[in-house]
Amino acid sequence: MELEELKRKINEDFKTLKLNLQTLSELRAQYLGKKGPIQELLLDMKNLPNEEKRTLGEKVNALKALATELFEEKKKELEKEEQLKKLESEKVDVTLPGKEINQGSIHILSKVIEEIEDLFIGMGYEVKDGPEVEEDKFNFQLLNIPKDHPARAMQDTFYVDAVRLLRTQTSAVQAHTMLEDEEKRDVRIICPGKAYRRDDDDATHSHEFTQMEGLVVNKTVSMSELKGTLLSMAKALFGEDREIRLRPSYFPFTEPSIEVDVSCFKCHGKGCALCKGTGWIEILGAGMVNNNVLKMCGYDPNIYQGFAFGVGIERIAMLKYGIEDIRTLYSNDLRQNKQFK
Ligand code: DAH
Q: N or C: which end of the chain has fewer CB within 10 A?
């Protein structure tokens, strides 16, 4: 075999055989192994005269070197190809748009509650909880609304049985709190929660709604502290430059009772559609705890006094965020919540 011939044969094999690293090393063994054509030449050498042995030896070495070189080159080529293939298959396109993660957001009612809670916790209030299925006693009687009291007509009630009902107001928590606080006789709580009334649902009424009750009882609390507290709340909710106005009102559980208006945050008192031209918007009811309530809950009204307030959370949320229909707050439409992330 001549050098040129060997080169041609090997290159032809490279061309016609579909080689990978494994089959290449098999092919290499065929050429360079013990039974290969090069090795065979060496076997013939034994019988040759010394002179020719030398020339043949040189030739065999040259053939070996050539074949080794060709196979090494081919091996490098295949390795490179395989690496490229691997890179190609493992390619990551970092410019592709990412998968959007659906991030939840807090419901507007919860947001308003949290905002008010933050304010009152800062003023030393405790956040209380109370049952939604409530006894008539706590929802009405201990709040100075006995059976057959005309004020019951204002709060059409879902009765569960003769004794229990769905609470119509978070005021029901007042008596629970006062009765529980036998030792300290010092109450300072807010209670956010659901209340229920047999109202027909419309743009401003919902049979299920949210209130936040506030109650302070001790030996010194006064109407002026109530006013200051409510002013702080109005400013926190509707802006630092808000003012409040107190109007006399009636609730069976407070005496005197007031209704509280906030100066209109839209027209700043000039008069607009939101405040119906008056410059003021009603936001809550409040008052000094009625002596009868104090007495029924074990407090001597000659020593103790209290104030209370109740605010409708939906109303605050609707005013604050310009929501026109209370039902949208219960529609579970995520597009609404997403706006308030
Ligand atoms: N519970 C009353 C309502 O649902 C609101 C209210 C008014 C609560 C005056 C109070 C208060 O604590 O003092 O209409």
A: C
Nearest CA to ligand 1 atom 2: 310
Atom of ligand 1 nearest to the CA of 171: 1
Q: Which residues line ligand 1 (CB under 6 A)?
A: 169, 171, 213, 251, 254, 285-287, 308-310
CA distance linking residue 212 with residue 290, whole number of Å: 19
The pLDDT tens digits for 126-174 are 999 999 999 999 999 999 999 988 888 888 999 999 999 999 999 999 9
Sign of dihedral through CA atoms 244, 247, 248, 254? negative
Closest approach atom of ligand 1 to CA 287: 13
For ligand 1, atom 5: residue with the closest CA: 310
Atom of ligand 1 nearest to the CA of 213: 12
Q: How confident is the model at residue 1 (pLDDT cuts 50, 70, 90)?
A: low
How deeply is 283 buried, as exposed, middle or buried, from its count of CB atoms within 10 A (0-12, 13-18, 19+)?
A: buried
- Report d(CA 207, CA 196) in Å as an integer: 5
Distance of CA 251 from the midpoint of ligand 1 (Å): 7
**Ligand 1 geometric centre to CA of 184 (Å):** 25
Instruction: Return the structure tokens found at 76.
Output: 């490098």
Q: What architecture is domain 108-338?
A: 2-Layer Sandwich (3.30)
pLDDT tens digits for 188-245?
Answer: 999 999 999 999 999 999 999 999 999 999 999 999 999 999 999 999 999 999 999 9
Q: Which of 251, 258, 283 to mutate to test the pocket of ligand 1 (most atoms within 8 A of CB)?
A: 251
- Domain residue limits, the chain: 3-90, 108-338
